C-alpha cells in the first residue's frame, strides 16, 4: 500500500487533519456567502483549541451537512468534496455560481512531516481560502442578497459536476498541500456570465420588459443533497422575505453551538518525551531536524466550559443562529457530549417568534449577542423547512419587490412601479446590460446595431446608461470586451470603447417605450397643441439658432 | 537606522521578490495598499507562541475579519489585530502623503520585506537577512469626472482581485520559510511585540519616483521595536 512508510500514528493524525480541514473549508466558504462581514478574534493564549490555529467558527448545521455528505469518508482520488454555491431568486429560479472543490490526487510527498509541516500548510491554505472567497464574483452578489435573491449552498461528495456553471467558467486555484498519501488541492470554478455585474445594477434595476436571460438553467442533477441558504438572516425591512421553497430545500433555523475542536500542541523537545497531560488522547513523536518533536493531540472539549453549566443540560441557553450571527464567544461555548469533534445533539428549536428579535449580524466576539433560545417543538433541524413560513405569512405575499430606477431625462418612467412578482422572466434583474466579458467567453454574440433608436437617445443621461435597457429584444447576449481599433487600452479607458459600451443601450425614450407606449402616446397627442403653441411663441429664437448653424 | 550588513555579504541572495503593480486614483491609494499588505501579512502571521518548560510551545489563535473599501468596489480579509492594522495604516499613510507631496507624476512603490536576524559578534551589528520581498508599484491617476471615478472603482476592484490571486499563488509555492525557532531564537524570526498575533519580522519602506524616473526619496521605516535594541 502507498502508505506503508507512514506510521499508524501519523496516518491517524493525517486523516484527522484532512477531515477537519474539509470541515473548516466548508465553514469558510459558506460563511463567506452569508452576505455579512465575518469577524473573529485573535487569542494569544491557546484556550481555544481552534483547528489550524485559526479562529473559524463552526455553524453546526453546516458541519452537520458536511459530515453527512462525507459520510465518514475522506477526500481521495476520484472522491472530491464539493461545495456548490448557487443563487435563487424570489421567483424561484436558481443558478449555480461556483463550485469549490477539495480534491486529492495521487502525487505523494513521503518526506513531509505530517504533524508539523502538513498541519501548518493546511493552516496557510485556509488563510488563502479566506482571501480567495472574497475575490470571486459570487462574494459581491452574496453581500447583496436578502431581498431579490438568496445564496444557497450544497455539499456533495464524489465526482465534481461543473456543467451547471455555464460555458466559459473560470477556475482559480486556492492552493495545494502535499501529504504522504496524496496531494490535497483546493480550487474554485465559477460562472463568469454574471462576473461583471456591478452593484450598480442592483440599485438601479432596469426595466424588465424585453430582457431575456438565457442563464437560467434547470438544475441538471436532481439534487441528491438538499440546498441550503447561506443567509439565515431576517430581512432588513419589516417582514421577512423568503424564497419560495422547493421541497428539497431547507430554510432552517437552528440552535447554535460550536463543535469542539481538538487542541494541537506543538512541542519541540530535545530527545525528551513528554508525559502527556490527562486529556491527551494521542501522542506522536516525529524526529525533526535533530530534535525530537513531540506532538500531542488532545481533545479538550470539556476544558473551557464554564463551570456553571452542566454538560448535556437541557436548560442550556444556546445562542440562536437565525440571525446568521456566528456568535459564539469562547467562554460561552456550549459543548454537549458527543463524539470527538462531533456535533452535540441539537436541542430544541427556537420559536420563530424570536426572529423579530434577531440580531443582524456576525458580530465581533466582544459584542456578541444572544437571543434566548425559546424551546418550542423539538423538531429535527432538517425538517424545519417550511415551518418558518407560518410565522411570516405566505411567502408569496412577501415576494413583491419594488424596483425604483434612477434614470435621466427623456427616459421611460414607469407609471406604475414594476413589481417582480408580476414578471415571469427569470433572472430579469440580472439583465446583462453592461456585462463585459473576457475574450474567451464562447457564448458571445455581437450586439445588433441599434437601428431602432432615435437620434435623441444618444443624449447623455446623468446616470449613464448603466442598469437600464430598451425595449430592444436583442438583449439576450453578453458583450465581449470591446476593443475598438486605435483606442487606448490603459487601465482607465474612457475612450471610444468605453463610451460605446456605456451608452450602447441607453434607456428607452418614454415615447418609444412599448409597455406604456400606448398610454403615453395618447398623452403626447393630447399635449401636442400645447407644445405647438409654445414652440410657435419661440419661433424667433429657433430661427436665430438656425442662422447660427449656417 | 537600519542595521547594515557586513561588507561582502549580498543580502538578497536567497530572497524571493514579488512585484505587483496597480494604477489607482489618489483617494484609493491607502485602501489598495492596505488590501495587499494585509493579505500578505495574513499569510505571514501566526498565533502567539507560548513556550513552556522543556522547550514545548503552543500557538495562539489568529482571528480574521472582513474589511470593506470605501473608494474601491472591493473587500479583503485581514488578521484581527488592531496593533498590526495601526502599524500598516501608519506606513501607508506616510506613503500616500509622500506621493501627494512629491509633486511627481504620482509614481512610487512601497515594499514589504520579511527578514531574519542573525546575531553577529561585536563590533558588527546583527544582520538582517531578507527572505521575501513584496513590492507594490503604484501609479496615481487623476480622473476628470464622476463617470470615470465610478469605472475606476470597479476596475481597481477587479485588479485587486487579481492581485490577491497572485499573492495566494506565491504563498502556495511553499518555498523557503524560516524554520520554527526555539525560545531563544524567536525574536530573530518573528515580531513578538504584538499582543495578539505574531507576524514574521518585517519592515516597510517606500520610494517616490520623480518625473525623471529616478527615485528621489528613500525612507526606511522600521516598524519594529527591535531596532532600538541594537
UniProtKB/TrEMBL annotation, chain A:
Cellular component GO terms held in the UniProt record: Atg1/ULK1 kinase complex; cytosol; phagophore assembly site
Organism placement in taxonomy: Eukaryota, Metazoa, Chordata, Craniata, Vertebrata
InterPro entries: ATG13, Atg13_N, HORMA_dom_sf
GO BP annotations, alphabetical order: mitophagy; piecemeal microautophagy of the nucleus; protein localization to phagophore assembly site; regulation of autophagy; regulation of cell population proliferation
Annotated Low complexity bias: 458-471
Region (Disordered): 334-392, 438-472
Protein name: Autophagy-related protein 13
Family statement drawn from the similarity comment of this UniProt entry: Belongs to the ATG13 family. Metazoan subfamily.
From TrEMBL, chain B:
Keywords (A to Z) from UniProt: Autophagy
Keyword Chaperone included in the entry's annotation: no
Main location: other
GO process annotations (BP): autophagosome assembly
Subcellular location(s) of the protein: Preautophagosomal structure
MF annotations from Gene Ontology: protein kinase binding
GO cellular component, one term: Atg1/ULK1 kinase complex
InterPro entries: ATG101 (IPR012445)
Family statement: Belongs to the ATG101 family.
Protein name, per record: Autophagy-related protein 101
Organism the protein comes from: Chionis minor (Black-faced sheathbill)
This protein's encoding gene: Atg101
Amino acid at each position: 500500500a502507498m502508505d506503508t512508510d507512514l506510521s499508524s500514528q501519523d496516518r491517524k493524525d493525517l486523516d484527522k487533519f484532512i477531515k477537519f480541514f474539509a470541515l473548516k473549508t466548508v465553514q469558510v466558504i459558506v460563511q463567506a456567502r452569508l452576505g455579512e462581514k465575518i469577524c473573529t478574534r485573535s487569542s494569544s493564549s491557546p484556550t481555544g483549541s481552534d483547528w489550524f490555529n485559526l479562529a473559524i467558527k463552526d455553524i453546526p448545521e453546516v458541519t452537520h451537512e458536511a459530515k453527512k455528505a462525507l459520510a465518514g469518508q475522506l477526500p481521495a482520488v476520484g472522491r472530491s468534496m464539493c461545495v456548490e454555491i448557487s443563487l435563487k431568486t424570489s421567483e424561484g429560479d436558481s443558478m449555480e455560481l461556483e463550485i469549490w472543490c477539495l480534491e486529492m490526487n495521487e502525487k505523494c510527498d513521503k518526506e513531509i512531516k505530517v504533524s508539523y509541516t502538513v498541519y501548518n500548510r493546511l493552516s496557510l491554505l485556509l488563510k488563502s481560502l479566506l482571501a480567495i472567497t472574497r475575490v470571486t464574483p459570487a462574494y459581491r452578489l452574496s453581500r447583496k442578497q436578502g431581498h431579490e435573491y438568496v445564496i444557497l449552498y450544497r455539499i456533495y461528495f464524489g465526482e465534481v459536476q461543473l456543467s451547471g456553471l455555464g460555458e466559459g467558467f473560470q477556475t482559480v486555484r486556492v492552493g495545494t498541500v502535499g501529504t504522504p498519501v496524496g496531494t490535497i488541492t483546493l480550487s474554485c470554478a465559477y460562472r463568469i456570465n454574471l462576473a461583471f455585474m456591478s452593484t450598480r445594477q442592483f440599485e438601479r434595476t432596469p426595466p424588465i420588459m424585453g430582457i431575456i436571460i438565457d442563464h437560467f438553467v434547470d438544475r441538471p442533477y436532481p439534487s441528491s443533497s438538499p440546498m441550503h441558504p447561506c443567509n439565515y438572516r431576517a430581512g432588513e425591512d419589516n417582514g421577512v422575505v423568503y424564497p419560495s421553497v422547493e421541497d428539497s430545500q431547507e430554510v432552517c433555523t437552528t440552535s447554535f453551538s460550536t463543535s469542539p475542536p481538538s487542541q494541537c500542541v506543538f512541542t519541540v523537545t530535545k530527545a525528551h518525551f513528554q508525559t502527556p497531560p490527562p486529556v491527551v488522547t494521542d501522542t506522536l513523536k516525529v524526529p525533526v531536524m535533530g530534535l525530537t518533536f513531540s506532538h500531542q493531540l488532545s481533545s479538550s472539549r470539556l476544558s473551557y466550559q464554564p463551570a456553571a453549566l452542566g454538560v448535556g443540560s437541557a436548560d442550556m441557553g444556546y445562542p440562536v443562529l437565525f440571525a446568521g450571527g456566528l456568535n459564539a464567544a469562547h467562554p460561552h461555548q456550549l459543548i454537549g457530549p458527543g463524539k470527538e469533534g462531533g456535533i452535540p445533539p441539537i436541542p430544541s428549536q427556537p420559536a420563530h417568534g424570536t426572529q423579530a428579535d434577531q440580531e443582524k449580524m456576525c458580530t465581533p466576539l466582544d459584542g456578541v449577542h444572544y437571543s434566548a433560545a425559546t424551546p418550542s417543538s423539538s423538531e429535527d433541524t432538517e425538517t424545519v423547512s417550511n415551518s418558518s413560513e407560518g410565522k411570516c405569512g405566505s411567502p408569496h405575499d412577501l415576494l413583491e419587490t419594488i424596483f425604483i430606477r434612477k434614470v435621466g431625462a427623456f427616459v421611460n418612467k414607469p407609471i406604475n412601479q414594476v413589481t417582480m412578482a408580476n414578471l415571469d422572466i427569470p433572472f430579469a434583474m440580472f439583465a446583462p446590460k453592461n456585462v463585459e466579458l473576457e475574450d474567451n467567453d464562447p457564448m458571445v454574440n455581437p450586439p445588433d446595431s441599434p437601428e431602432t433608436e432615435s437620434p435623441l437617445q444618444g443624449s447623455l443621461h446623468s446616470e449613464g446608461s448603466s442598469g437600464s435597457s430598451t425595449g430592444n429584444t436583442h438583449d439576450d447576449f453578453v458583450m465581449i470586451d470591446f476593443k475598438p481599433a486605435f483606442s487606448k487600452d490603459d487601465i482607465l479607458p474612457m475612450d471610444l470603447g468605453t463610451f460605446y459600451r456605456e451608452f450602447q443601450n441607453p434607456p428607452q425614450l418614454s415615447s418609444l417605450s412599448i409597455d406604456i407606449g400606448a398610454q403615453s402616446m395618447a398623452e403626447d397627442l393630447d399635449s401636442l397643441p400645447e407644445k405647438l403653441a409654445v414652440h410657435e411663441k419661440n419661433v424667433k429664437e429657433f430661427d436665430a439658432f438656425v442662422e447660427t448653424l449656417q | 537606522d537600519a542595521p547594515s550588513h557586513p561588507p561582502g555579504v549580498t543580502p538578497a541572495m536567497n530572497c524571493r521578490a514579488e512585484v505587483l503593480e496597480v494604477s489607482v486614483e489618489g483617494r484609493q491609494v491607502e485602501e489598495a495598499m492596505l488590501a495587499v499588505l494585509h493579505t500578505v501579512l495574513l499569510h505571514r502571521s501566526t498565533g502567539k507562541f507560548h513556550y513552556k518548560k522543556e522547550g514545548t510551545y503552543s500557538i495562539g489563535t489568529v482571528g480574521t475579519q472582513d474589511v470593506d473599501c470605501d473608494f474601491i468596489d472591493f473587500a479583503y480579509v485581514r488578521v484581527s489585530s488592531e496593533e498590526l492594522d495601526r502599524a500598516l495604516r501608519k506606513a501607508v499613510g506616510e506613503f500616500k502623503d509622500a506621493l501627494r507631496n512629491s509633486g511627481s507624476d504620482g509614481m512610487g512603490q512601497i515594499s514589504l520585506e520579511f527578514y531574519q536576524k542573525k546575531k553577529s559578534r561585536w563590533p558588527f551589528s546583527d544582520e538582517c537577512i531578507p527572505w521575501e520581498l513584496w513590492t507594490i508599484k503604484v501609479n496615481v491617476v487623476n480622473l476628470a469626472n464622476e463617470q470615470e471615478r465610478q469605472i475606476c472603482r470597479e476596475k481597481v476592484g477587479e485588479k485587486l482581485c487579481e492581485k490577491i490571486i497572485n499573492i495566494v499563488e506565491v504563498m502556495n509555492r511553499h518555498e523557503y520559510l524560516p524554520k520554527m525557532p526555539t525560545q531563544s531564537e524567536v525574536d530573530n524570526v518573528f515580531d513578538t511585540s504584538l499582543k495578539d498575533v505574531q507576524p514574521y519580522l518585517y519592515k516597510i519602506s517606500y520610494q517616490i519616483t520623480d518625473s525623471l524616473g529616478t527615485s528621489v526619496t528613500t525612507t526606511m521605516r522600521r516598524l519594529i521595536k527591535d531596532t532600538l535594541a541594537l
